[in-house]
């Protein structure tokens, strides 16, 4: 007979171990950012900062013409991908803002997560702008913007993501999911 752990047991054990996870432990002797103590986290932040862009930098002027050359199947695929990402970025933002930013204690990691929130805002804006640009039918546009309620696959992914955001899951499980 093998001794196996249920996923709930494993999750409980992982949650108990997270008190030893350095990224989650407050350093009472550290009140500011410098000196940088965790260069890997700082490097992630600086790389994210170096790749910064805004939605205004994207030239959409010829996109509508190109959109008209696509097949109905290609339209369907692109619309559903845009709808998924436009809806899902809200979930990603919530997870970053309400969970990861609250949980991590290292200033270098907090800088990275704050910047990632900004990047996710830009992504969300861009997906929405693309839907606005490509879709002329207002009812279809509304359906795509409300994809969590109107598209089964998007709703199912949103439910899955929300499952991993709750307090019962360890930090390790949430970051992997």
Automatic annotation (TrEMBL):
Q: Which GO terms describe its biological process?
A: deoxyribonucleotide biosynthetic process
Lineage, top-rank taxon, reads Eukaryota
Which is one GO molecular function term here?
oxidoreductase activity
InterPro entries named in the record: Ferritin-like_SF (IPR009078), RNR-like (IPR012348), RNR_small (IPR033909), RNR_small_AS (IPR030475), RNR_small_fam (IPR000358)
Q: Which Gene3D superfamilies match?
A: Ribonucleotide Reductase, subunit A
Q: Which PROSITE patterns does the entry link to?
A: RIBORED_SMALL (PS00368)
Record-linked PANTHER family? RIBONUCLEOSIDE-DIPHOSPHATE REDUCTASE SMALL CHAIN, RIBONUCLEOSIDE-DIPHOSPHATE REDUCTASE SUBUNIT M2
The Swiss-Prot or TrEMBL record describes its family as follows: Belongs to the ribonucleoside diphosphate reductase small chain family.
- Can you name this protein? Ribonucleoside-diphosphate reductase small subunit, putative
Q: Tell me what organism the protein belongs to.
A: Babesia bovis
